[in-house]
Amino acid sequence: MRTSRNPTTINAGSMADIAFLLLLFFLVATTISQEKEIVRKLPNPCPAGQDCTTDIPERNLLHIIINEKGDLLVDNEITPLKELKNRAVLFLDNNGKGTCDYCKGTKIESESDDPAKAVISVSSHRLSSYASFISVQDELTKAYTELRTRYAAEKFNKSFEMLSEEEMTAVQKAYPFIVSEATIQ
User: Fold this and answer.
1) What does the pLDDT read at residue 95?
2) pLDDT tens for residues 126-162?
3) 3-state SS assignment for residue 185
């Protein structure tokens, strides 16, 4: 009978190679979700010693409030999210006439003097979900996109994507994206 005093060892040299290959496989095979960003240009800082506040006439201000449940209150009316885009378009594009050119004579309570003077105020409850805030932002972006696309077609006879940089600046000047955001308790 033969006995050995040296215990049997397992060659673990290839274990590190296997772990590395598994790690590499999961890194290559896994897709990393890309978060969409909200593209906004922040206003320039107010120069020292100047008062940069402006009074906005109430008729040029569309109030949107998101409560903690994600419900919307638009100018003191409960409004479903799916109607927000149309409501914003009507507010922005009626030029103080009380009606807009393409909304079949619908009377609008809240009417801005001019799209360049219109401000949309979004106030969200501090307990409202991020998803509801982003949904509101998406609907507002759709409203501005619709108005800018229509303006580009009427003014330049082109789609918004085909505009030159100078034409695109003119469209953005006609319909500037002016949204004020706040958190409420």
Assistant:
1) 58
2) 898 989 999 999 999 999 999 999 999 988 998 888 8
3) coil
Backbone CA torsion sign across 35, 172, 158, 149:
positive
Best CA proximity match to 170, nearest among 119, 116, 117: 116
pLDDT, tens only, 7-19: 677 777 788 888 8
How far, in Å, are 35, 67, 74, 81, 180 from residue 78 at the CA level?
Answer: 30, 11, 6, 10, 20
Q: Residue 137 in contact with residue 160, Cβ under 8 Å?
A: no
SS3 state at 183: strand
**Rounded Cα gap, residues 96 and 110, in angstroms:** 9
Tokens of 164: 């030159």
- The CA-based diameter of the chain, rounded to the nearest angstrom, is 108
Please report the DSSP string for 125-169 in residue order: ETTS-HHHHHHHHHHHHHHHHHHHHHHHHHHHSS-GGG--HHHHH
Distance in angstroms (rounded) separating the CA atoms of residues 119 and 126 = 22
Q: Where are the domains of the chain?
A: 58-184
What is the rounded distance in angstroms from the CA atom of residue 135 to the CA atom of residue 138?
Answer: 5
Chain CA centroid to CA 156, Å: 26
CA–CA separation, 168 and 153 (whole Å): 12
Which of 184, 11, 168, 175 is CA-nearest to residue 94?
175
Confidence bin at 101 (pLDDT 50/70/90): very low
